[in-house]
Amino acid sequence: MSIYYIDGNSLTLETIRTIMADKEARVALSDEAAARCRATRSQIDRWMEKDAPVVYGVNTGLGNLKDVVVPPEKHIEWNKTLPYPHAAGMGDYLPPEVTLTSLLLRANVLARGYSGVRPELIERILAIYNAKVAPAVHSEGSTGLSDLGPLAQNVMTVAGLDEAKAYYEGGLMPSREALRKAGLAESFTLECKEVLAQMNGSTMTQAIAVLAFLRFEELLPRVEARLAGGAELPEFFAGCRGVVEFTKGILNRENNISCDNPLLFELPEGGYEAVMGCNCSNTQVGYAADMMNTVIVELANGVFEKISGKIAKNEGRHLLNKIKTCAMQVSADSIPTKGGQEDHVEFSFTAARKFYYAVELAGKLLTL
């Protein structure tokens, strides 16, 4: 059995590829990361005392309830109900590989220590990931500013809440049943800040984009073989290599960022302060995904020219047109939400999904 440690700072695309390819892989929290989490969690515990200052998301409600203080004795009950109003979604479920990857990415994000969660929560998420219990998450429900809906559905499986569903060993079932079959506790108590820390951010967008990029890299040797001896390949790489490397850099950085509110920063005189910021947006990943879709069109054009035979040519043209549709940019659009409170809401989630789909279509094109 191979053990891979996460620390919140060094999870790369190559590491993710290695973990996914290793059937015996187990991911664990590093000792250093656990110590950081315990340190910031101690501050959260102090803010749960009766004489503590009001801290958003720790001892208050959320959204319209941001000014309502939640008493310490009520925070367990409050956090148990919190995922339900946010776990909205529709449409088919995302592929299990996507939601599993989102668990790995979120565990790594929390391991940075800035979110103030217990190490036990990260270990719970990793246990679910290692057991390959994939939360069932609807494919529609994120605006792209924050994957609030999809990530809330993840939270419900992590906590083992009623109505949560998950995939396990090829079957779709209630999450508690999947967790029990995997040898894990059916439920997990989430304490203050731990629901917010899991569902605020764009980790589902990141998971989709990461998997799309890894699959794209796997296609390149087949593209090279198909275009060998022609001018298409050098032209392709000359025009697109910069976009590919840029996207790789973006994704590697976003694997290791803190994306919830508030974050805890250590003070020179000791203790921590809670700092609010717009950490949840994945705008840059949406831009990169849109550019990658254009790269895939360039790839597909060259491959299509090599296809022979009337039937294959017709099917190839159909696939090529679908790929071109994926290249229509969406991340530049924005629909304000919450009555204009969220003024820039770009569609990075949709851009990432189109990237994932375009790679799938390109793979089919290469079989013709």
TrEMBL record:
It comes from the Bacteria. Pfam families: Lyase_aromatic. InterPro entries: Aromatic_Lyase (IPR001106), Fumarase/histidase_N (IPR024083), L-Aspartase-like (IPR008948). One of its GO terms (molecular function) is ammonia-lyase activity. Gene3D superfamilies: Fumarase/aspartase (Central domain), Fumarase/aspartase (N-terminal domain). This is Aromatic amino acid ammonia-lyase.
